[in-house]
Amino acid sequence: MATIDSQKCAIIGCGQVGASIAFTLVQSGLFSELVLIDINREKAEGEAMDLMHGVPFAAPVSVYAGDYSQIADCGLIILAAGANQKPDETRLDLVHRNTAIFRNLIPQITFYNRNAILLVVSNPVDILTYVTLQESGFPENRVIGTGTVLDTARLKQLVGKYLGIDSRSVHAFIIGEHGDSELAVWSSANISGVDLDDFCTLAGQSESHDALHQLYEEVRDSAYEVIKRKGATYYGIAMAVLRIARAIIRDEHSVLPVSCYVRGHYGMDDICVGVPAIVGSEGIERVLDIPLNDYEQTQLLHSVTQLKDVLRTLPDQNGTVS
Questions:
Q1: Can you give the pTM of this predicted structure?
Q2: pLDDT higher at 76 or 314
Q3: Which residues have C-beta within 8 Å of that of residue 136, sequence separation ≥ 6?
Q4: Which residues are catalytic?
């Protein structure tokens, strides 16, 4: 087994999402080597060439198209392969197509590398993170999905805009499915330590249930609105991937609402779902059980039920549905 190089990253899938991730990572200076893999080798080659032309404006990095044999020493492998979400299509509608794609590519990953951290980006991300965990046989801490990191960023941006403040001062989470059943944790939301209710009063803004629910609905429906206008979302998720990658490569011990395997947390078991976790160089260090009120707890369990219902529709490798 090759020695793992934390400065080498592979991106599998060079569509709009994968290419945007590559572009973001090239500018970040986090990696010295990026290998791009796609079923369309020429597409991967073209993306690598285009990115390398911009390297003189960034930190030194080698970007090239490769095959699975070249991921043997990668410390981080990003899975962005799969079908795109179409207008009026939910993320869960993608599940059978993308599960089949993942069941084809995961054995090719594990044949060459069993020591990397796998970061799942493709949708439905919670289902595919679970599939990746089961199919790869990797330890739970080294299989991570982007979860609700982007949804949480969307919430911070909208709350910041609503209150007229820097979105980085907003501390709140979206948790659950990265999809229609996700929920906002308003009960612990705060603005740089000031309770959200109190800050809204100070800012002269309504903190009514209707106002907050409208912000939540905008977050939940954000992807649909973007897809309707431009066909796909890719810049926001690329920046979310960078945030997670930075936490891993720099061993930041950051608290991020990634999709991870839960075992007894929040009354849930045997599922991957977006919940706050400490992320560092070993992947998931610890899943955090943040306080939820009764309504939020009920909504989270509903979200998990939705995911488990979908998992039961997936055929196993023999084509059998449980």
A1: 0.94
A2: 76
A3: 106, 109, 110, 118, 143
A4: 178
